Automatic annotation (TrEMBL):
InterPro entries: SurE (IPR030048), SurE-like_Pase/nucleotidase (IPR002828), SurE-like_sf (IPR036523)
Highest taxon of the lineage: Bacteria
Stretches assigned to the Survival protein SurE-like phosphatase/nucleotidase domain: 3-194
The protein, known as: 5'-nucleotidase SurE
Cofactor: a divalent metal cation
Cofactor info, note text: Binds 1 divalent metal cation per subunit.
Enzyme Commission number: 3.1.3.5
Record-linked SUPFAM superfamilies: SurE-like
Species classification: Bacteria, Pseudomonadati, Pseudomonadota, Alphaproteobacteria, Rhodobacterales
Signal peptide: none
GO molecular function, one term: metal ion binding
Gene (UniProt): surE
Length: 261
């Protein structure tokens, strides 16, 4: 198996090293793991691509490249440049430092990388490590992902879910904010919503008097719907959320059509 991996925290991020370990386990001794990751952190860029300017790419080592672009740029570079003669069998993105459950999924460059893999017709999975009081200060905050990542991916791939005739499935995996021994198991869960919280901005004044705005997230332990990704994560479970690029609100189509007709 040939696996292309990327992330949004940058090529030197500790979570990428975790994903390299997971991918090597999954690929096996006869497989290949290729890294094409952003040269600099790209958190929060979602599915952005560098459409109006070129992306510089540099080889950092065997099967290892850094690109000055987003995670989606990196997947495009991997599929159509770095691995163009031997395309990947699987695209993995992560392991993100912090969760991409609930509304975070919409901003996530980690998911953007997996989404681009799916749009290229390749099985793709985004992986993120939820952080909280039980794991953020342990020796390896990525312990749950490191120890349970390969097995979780095998279960997803073995499921071999039907793709249908629309946008290809990809998967959002979030490991709970607990040490590896505290993980209860794996659950399929829908994307949730943290009630009463959202991203916002915080103004700061520079010494020159100019005002700069810093984006900041909301309370990551806010109340969510029972059974959704963030809810099961906070209860100690790995969440697996099947996703598609289709943004249509299918539940509203009929009602809207009856009003417009």
């Amino acid at each position: 198996m040939r696996i292309l991996i990327t992330n949004d925290d940058g090529i030197n991020a500790p979570g990428l090293e975790v994903l390299e370990q997971i991918a090597a386990d999954l690929a096996g001794p006869d497989g290949e793991v290729w890294v094409v990751a952003p040269a600099f952190e790209q958190s929060g860029v979602a599915h952005c691509i560098s459409y109006t300017h070129p992306t510089m790419i540099a080889q950092m080592g065997p099967r290892r490249y850094a690109a000055e672009g987003s995670p989606a740029d990196c997947v495009l570079a991997g599929v159509h440049h770095v691995m163009k003669d031997t395309p990947p069998d699987l695209v993995l993105s992560g392991v993100n430092r912090g969760n991409n459950s609930a509304e975070n999924a919409l901003y996530s460059g980690t998911l953007g990388g997996a989404l681009e893999g799916a749009l290229q017709g390749i099985p793709a999975v985004a992986l993120s490590q939820y952080l909280g009081p039980e794991n953020v200060n342990i020796d390896d905050p990525f312990e749950a992902a490191r120890q349970h990542g390969a097995a979780t991916l095998r279960r997803i791939l073995d499921a071999d879910m039907p793709q249908g005739e629309t946008y290809r499935l990809f998967y959002n995996v979030n490991f709970p904010p607990v040490p590896a021994a505290g993980v209860k198991g794996v659950k399929a869960a829908p994307q949730g919503l943290r009630i009463g919280t959202s991203f916002a901005v915080e103004p700061h004044q520079s010494p020159s008097g100019r005002v700069f705005l810093w984006a900041k997230g909301g309370n990551q332990r806010a109340e969510t719907q029972s059974g959704c990704d963030a809810h099961v994560n906070l209860d100690g479970w790995i969440s697996v959320t099947p996703m598609r690029a289709d943004l249509t609100a299918h539940d509203a189509l009929s009602a809207l059509d009856s009003v417009l007709d």
